[in-house]
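Deliverable D4.2, example record:
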Amino acid sequence: MAEEFTALGTALIMMVVDFKKMAFEFKKFLGLDLTQAFPALNIAENKLCYADAQFEFCIVADSDWNCKDSVNAYYKHSERRHEIGVRESVYLLALSGDFDALYSIAHEVAHWGLINYFKINFGLPEFERLDPVSKMVILQIHENITDVLTALLVFSEEELLKMDTGDKAGFSSFIGKNQLALAAYYCKHHKLLTENFFKNIAPKIWEQNQIQRRLKNA
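Output generated by the structure prediction step:
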């Protein structure tokens, strides 16, 4: 059931949010030439420190790494601290230009952007009061939209459209399986998703709201 809610929530957000415009605006905010490669390490080490007085970039020794082995970096957000942490071995790989290491850092930069620049946040007190399943669903939806934004920051839309993601399998097959597949799906189908929302979903929401208002005023 949680997976179904995650897929539905992600799909709804992809219907109404213009992630391409979001990536364009975020690059401009970071002072980037829109045609240049995304300098994830420089942004995390330098630019975010100037943009956010509460931001910290932390390199964590592998021996002190408390996250799963599959996790290369993290973003932690609290009221007074906005932190990107990177495992030291991954940081060294990023310094040498390793793409996977740099992509991991870019993903955390996208988390920072969604929460602090675009203000897509859940409100920490309200979030903490949610039940465990609702928390998991919201966190996974946030991960999914971060995947889409990261891919659009690192790759051009043309590059994503050329990727073979086997989209015949359907939308739900991309949830939580491949960061690039979800972004490629968005690039291929965002117009159809948006049209579907405004033609089929938005009118039903409006109709339900009108019914609720009439019931309250009855």
